[in-house]
Structure formats: structure tokens, C-alpha cells
């Protein structure tokens, strides 16, 4: 994620304030240096870094902690507020009819982002359409068409036409019944006069309600010039940050936001059309500081469970809270977890499991966990329906048969059965709970940093690790 280094280094400095009721100059200086170091390593422009660190230093040394507030909590609140102020609120995108124009260089992820944004609007009950005007890049039309098919949204393009302005105009006419028009434009390997001329002509034709600049998270310092020139040409209302599923820090997005006096609209976090998040400053900074993002996690869980249920009409996740918890239920839960995305992203959203704890895990810990889940899935595919419904019927002879049939060993089969028992006990703790009891348990889990959350809780990654 953006500025990912900040989490662990800043937490280390904050941990040294435990037990202190007041801050001294050395404390503040160390924290500010960590912030500067992390922001600069994330390719945030130097002037922005100095402005942010100066504000934090002035407030930390000049403001008295409120009564009953520790020095650590006081400075954490200051850092949190200043970072939220820096990234700003999410770009205003009302759920109503509008035309959105996408700008950016070639390779920034515009075409993928267009389909992702269209999918996102479709989940809000709107009818989106993507209009592909890129006649410069070979394969742009085919890629856009395929992405829109996956997103199940309307698409318009004309591979036989070499006039992007004409395509834009006819595209708006052909998709007149759509609520949202997303116009994808061509890019170049570098800022060139013909690129600017072309996008200015398209802008005049479609008269967009909003123009968004699409930036690769790895862009770094080059974001400033891009943001300035596109802003001068068409006016930039927001930024879309792509490819945040890699190791890029994304600091260039903050530079672009500052240069255009705009904000961040969407974050692209993966390769599928569903891997897109509406930018939310509070959750974004919470994850940045290692506090997790329970709201985003809840949305991912809800979506994954709905998709899993849609794939199997006979399975209802609500039955888990009312009846027995079978191996079939466990398999469906694992399918839902797989739909939630990479485990390291999910861990970042769980309070206490991102940042420091995750950084202490071996480099291949996430891969091992994914591998173990796939092994468990293969094992369950080798079981009979009766065994999936009644795991207690699986004795030693059946363990041997299942191990042979799945190409695994008996120990892994027994680990699967043990994992099922642990998850079953966790489910039973929630069964019969009233709303007040549930809220108290969730609050306790948050205070404990997310421990005990089924398959991911306990000691880091639990039995899957």
C-alpha cells in the first residue's frame, strides 16, 4: 500500500513512548525523522514531506495532551490527522448520471481502470458503459472489450476507425441509455504534443463531468510533470492509483494530488475487475498506521460470501450460525477467503495483524498459507458427501484412503480435520449470542489486535501457517 514503510518504522518510534505522559524534543525529533525517511523512500516530493513533518513537529511540541491521554496516543492522533489532511477526502463521484474522462500515459492502467470503475458503478445499481477511444496502442480495443465482458458492462469501440474524437462522439450516441459513461483515452510512453492535442479534442467533444488522472503506483517523482500538463490541458478532478498489489509505495499519487489540488478517487489492488476500492482516507490511513481497516475487510467478506453462495445455490452461509458446521461449510468459507484476494492484503485490514506482525513473518509465509488452503481443498474434493457432512465419521482407514486419493499424506488430512474442529468451536461461541454479546466480543477482538479470528487468528496465521 501507499507509504507502506511508514507503518512499521513509525510504530517502533511510537512504542518507545509507552508509559510517558509528556513528549520531549528528542521524542518528537525521532518520530519526525521516521516520517521524513518513509515518505521520501515512497517518492513523495521533498517539499510535501517537509511541510507535513513541520506541521507534526509544531503540533506535537505545542499542544498539550488532553487529560487522560498518553503521549503515545496524543502524537498518534496528530500524525493520523495530518496524514488524513494530506491525502484529503475521496474525489466526489455522486451515484448519478455522469461522464468521466480518463487520462494518463501508456501503461498506467487506464483501460483496466475503466472496466474496474464501470464494475464498481454497476454494483451501485447504475448502468455504466465504457467507450474506448485509444487508436494508438495495438490491442487496446480487444483488451477493453474483454475487460468489459468480465465486468458485465456495456462497451463501445470501433477498431476500424482511426479518429478518436469520432469514436468518442459516436460512442456517447450508441450508449445513450447508460447512466455512467467512462471514456478511455490513448496514452504515450512520454508526454507529447500530439497526446495533449488529442485529449483536448476528446475533452471538448464529450464535455466530461469529471476528468481523472490514472497513475501507476510506481511512478515516483514523474507524477508531478504528468499531473501538471494534464491538469493544464483538461483539468484534473481526481487521481486513480493502479497496481497497488505490488511492492510500489505510490507516493507519486500524493504529489499528483497536491499538484492538481484534487484528491484520490479509486485504488486498483489486483488484476481482476473486482480488485478496485473507492478511496477512503480514514480506512486508508488506519491501514497505513497498522490499525487495520475493518470497514473494507467487512465489505470484502460480504462480497466474497455472496459470490460463493451464488456459485452454489444449495449453500447458505447463514445456516452456519444456526446448525452444525460441516467440512462442506469449511470448504465454502475457504472459497470465499480465496475470493477476498491475497492474504497479505487481508492481513493489512485486520487490526494488529498488518505492519509489524506481518513484517516479522518469513517472506514465503503468505505463499505457504495459500498452498495449505489449496491442499485442504484438494483433500476435501477426495471425500464423499457423507464424510463432508459428518467429519466425525472419518477414522484411520478413511484418512489413509483420502490421503491416497488426494495425493497428500495422512498428517495433512489430520491437520485439516483438526482445523475444522477449531473453526467449529469458534462458530459455536457465536451461536445463540444476542446483538449486545456480539458487539462486546467484536470490541474485545479489536482491542486484542484481531486475535482469535478463526483460521487467521491465534498466533499470526493460525493452523494455515
From TrEMBL:
<feature type="binding site">
    <location>
        <begin position="242"/>
        <end position="245"/>
    </location>
    <ligand>
        <name>GTP</name>
    </ligand>
</feature>
<keyword id="KW-0342">GTP-binding</keyword>
<feature type="domain" description="SRP54-type proteins GTP-binding">
    <location>
        <begin position="97"/>
        <end position="290"/>
    </location>
</feature>
<dbReference type="InterPro" id="IPR003593">
    <property type="entry name" value="AAA+_ATPase"/>
</dbReference>
<dbReference type="Pfam" id="PF02881">
    <property type="entry name" value="SRP54_N"/>
</dbReference>
<dbReference type="InterPro" id="IPR036225">
    <property type="entry name" value="SRP/SRP_N"/>
</dbReference>
<dbReference type="InterPro" id="IPR013822">
    <property type="entry name" value="Signal_recog_particl_SRP54_hlx"/>
</dbReference>
<feature type="domain" description="AAA+ ATPase">
    <location>
        <begin position="96"/>
        <end position="280"/>
    </location>
</feature>
<protein>
    <recommendedName>
        <fullName>Signal recognition particle 54 kDa protein</fullName>
        <ecNumber>3.6.5.4</ecNumber>
    </recommendedName>
</protein>
<dbReference type="InterPro" id="IPR036891">
    <property type="entry name" value="Signal_recog_part_SRP54_M_sf"/>
</dbReference>
<feature type="region of interest" description="Disordered">
    <location>
        <begin position="446"/>
        <end position="465"/>
    </location>
</feature>
<dbReference type="InterPro" id="IPR022941">
    <property type="entry name" value="SRP54"/>
</dbReference>
<feature type="domain" description="Signal recognition particle SRP54 helical bundle">
    <location>
        <begin position="2"/>
        <end position="87"/>
    </location>
</feature>
<dbReference type="InterPro" id="IPR000897">
    <property type="entry name" value="SRP54_GTPase_dom"/>
</dbReference>
<dbReference type="GO" id="GO:0006614">
    <property type="term" value="P:SRP-dependent cotranslational protein targeting to membrane"/>
</dbReference>
<keyword id="KW-0687">Ribonucleoprotein</keyword>
<dbReference type="GO" id="GO:0003924">
    <property type="term" value="F:GTPase activity"/>
</dbReference>
<dbReference type="InterPro" id="IPR027417">
    <property type="entry name" value="P-loop_NTPase"/>
</dbReference>
<dbReference type="Pfam" id="PF02978">
    <property type="entry name" value="SRP_SPB"/>
</dbReference>
<comment type="subunit">
    <text>Part of the signal recognition particle protein translocation system, which is composed of SRP and FtsY. Archaeal SRP consists of a 7S RNA molecule of 300 nucleotides and two protein subunits: SRP54 and SRP19.</text>
</comment>
<comment type="similarity">
    <text>Belongs to the GTP-binding SRP family. SRP54 subfamily.</text>
</comment>
<dbReference type="GO" id="GO:0005525">
    <property type="term" value="F:GTP binding"/>
</dbReference>
<feature type="binding site">
    <location>
        <begin position="184"/>
        <end position="188"/>
    </location>
    <ligand>
        <name>GTP</name>
    </ligand>
</feature>
<dbReference type="Pfam" id="PF00448">
    <property type="entry name" value="SRP54"/>
</dbReference>
<keyword id="KW-0547">Nucleotide-binding</keyword>
<dbReference type="GO" id="GO:0048500">
    <property type="term" value="C:signal recognition particle"/>
</dbReference>
<dbReference type="InterPro" id="IPR004125">
    <property type="entry name" value="Signal_recog_particle_SRP54_M"/>
</dbReference>
<keyword id="KW-0694">RNA-binding</keyword>
<feature type="compositionally biased region" description="Gly residues">
    <location>
        <begin position="448"/>
        <end position="465"/>
    </location>
</feature>
<keyword id="KW-0733">Signal recognition particle</keyword>
<dbReference type="GO" id="GO:0008312">
    <property type="term" value="F:7S RNA binding"/>
</dbReference>
<keyword id="KW-0963">Cytoplasm</keyword>
<keyword id="KW-0378">Hydrolase</keyword>
<dbReference type="InterPro" id="IPR042101">
    <property type="entry name" value="SRP54_N_sf"/>
</dbReference>
<feature type="binding site">
    <location>
        <begin position="104"/>
        <end position="111"/>
    </location>
    <ligand>
        <name>GTP</name>
    </ligand>
</feature>
<comment type="function">
    <text>Involved in targeting and insertion of nascent membrane proteins into the cytoplasmic membrane. Binds to the hydrophobic signal sequence of the ribosome-nascent chain (RNC) as it emerges from the ribosomes. The SRP-RNC complex is then targeted to the cytoplasmic membrane where it interacts with the SRP receptor FtsY.</text>
</comment>
Amino acid at each position: 500500500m501507499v507509504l507502506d514503510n511508514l507503518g512499521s518504522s513509525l510504530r517502533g518510534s511510537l512504542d518507545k513512548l509507552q508509559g510517558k505522559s509528556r513528549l520531549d524534543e528528542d521524542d518528537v525529533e525521532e518520530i519526525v525523522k521516521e516520517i521524513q525517511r518513509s515518505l521520501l523512500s515512497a517518492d513523495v516530493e521533498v517539499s510535501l514531506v517537509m511541510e507535513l513533518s513541520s506541521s507534526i513537529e509544531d503540533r506535537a511540541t505545542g499542544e498539550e495532551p488532553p487529560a487522560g491521554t498518553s503521549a503515545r496516543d496524543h502524537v498518534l492522533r496528530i500524525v493520523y490527522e495530518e496524514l488524513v489532511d494530506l491525502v484529503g477526502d475521496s474525489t466526489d463521484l455522486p451515484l448519478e448520471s455522469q461522464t468521466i474522462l480518463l487520462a494518463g500515459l501508456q501503461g498506467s492502467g487506464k483501460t483496466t481502470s475503466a472496466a474496474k470503475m464501470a464494475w464498481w458503478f454497476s454494483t451501485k445499481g447504475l448502468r455504466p458503459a465504457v467507450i474506448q477511444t485509444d487508436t494508438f496502442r495495438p490491442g487496446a480495443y480487444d483488451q477493453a472489450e474483454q475487460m468489459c465482458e468480465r465486468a458485465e458492462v456495456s462497451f463501445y469501440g470501433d477498431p476500424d476507425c482511426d479518429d478518436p474524437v469520432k469514436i468518442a462522439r459516436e460512442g456517447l450516441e450508441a450508449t445513450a441509455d447508460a447512466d455512467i459513461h467512462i471514456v478511455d483515452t490513448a496514452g504515450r510512453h512520454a508526454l507529447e504534443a500530439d497526446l495533449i492535442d488529442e485529449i483536448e479534442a476528446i475533452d471538448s467533444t464529450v464535455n466530461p463531468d469529471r476528468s481523472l488522472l490514472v497513475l501507476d503506483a510506481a511512478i515516483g517523482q514523474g507524477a508531478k510533470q504528468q499531473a501538471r500538463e494534464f491538469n493544464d490541458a483538461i483539468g484534473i478532478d481526481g487521481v486513480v492509483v493502479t497496481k497497488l498489489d505490488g511492492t510500489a509505495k505510490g507516493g507519486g499519487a500524493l504529489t499528483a494530488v497536491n499538484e492538481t489540488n484534487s484528491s484520490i478517487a479509486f485504488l486498483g489492488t489486483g488484476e481482476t475487475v473486482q480488485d478496485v476500492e473507492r478511496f477512503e482516507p480514514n480506512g486508508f490511513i488506519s491501514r497505513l498506521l497498522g490499525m487495520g481497516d475493518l470497514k473494507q475487510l467487512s465489505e470484502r467478506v460480504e462480497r466474497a460470501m455472496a459470490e460463493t453462495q451464488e456459485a452454489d445455490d444449495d449453500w447458505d452461509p447463514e445456516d452456519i450460525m444456526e446448525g452444525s458446521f460441516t467440512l462442506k461449510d469449511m470448504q465454502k468459507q475457504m472459497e470465499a477467503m480465496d475470493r477476498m484476494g491475497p492474504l497479505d492484503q487481508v492481513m493489512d485490514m485486520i487490526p494488529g495483524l498488518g505492519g509489524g506482525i506481518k513484517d516479522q513473518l518469513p517472506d514465503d509465509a503468505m505463499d505457504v498459507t495459500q498452498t495449505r488452503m489449496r491442499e485442504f481443498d484438494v483433500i476435501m474434493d477426495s471425500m464423499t458427501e457423507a464424510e463432508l457432512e459428518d467429519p466425525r465419521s472419518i477414522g484411520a482407514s478413511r484418512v489413509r484412503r483420502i490421503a491416497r486419493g488426494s495425493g497428500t499424506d495422512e498428517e495433512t488430512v489430520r491437520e485439516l480435520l483438526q482445523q475444522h474442529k477449531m473453526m467449529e468451536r469458534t462458530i459455536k461461541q457465536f451461536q445463540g449470542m444476542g446483538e449486545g454479546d456480539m458487539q462486546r466480543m467484536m470490541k474485545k477482538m479489536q482491542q486484542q489486535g484481531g486475535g482469535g479470528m478463526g483460521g487467521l487468528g491465534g498466533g499470526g496465521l493460525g493452523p494455515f501457517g
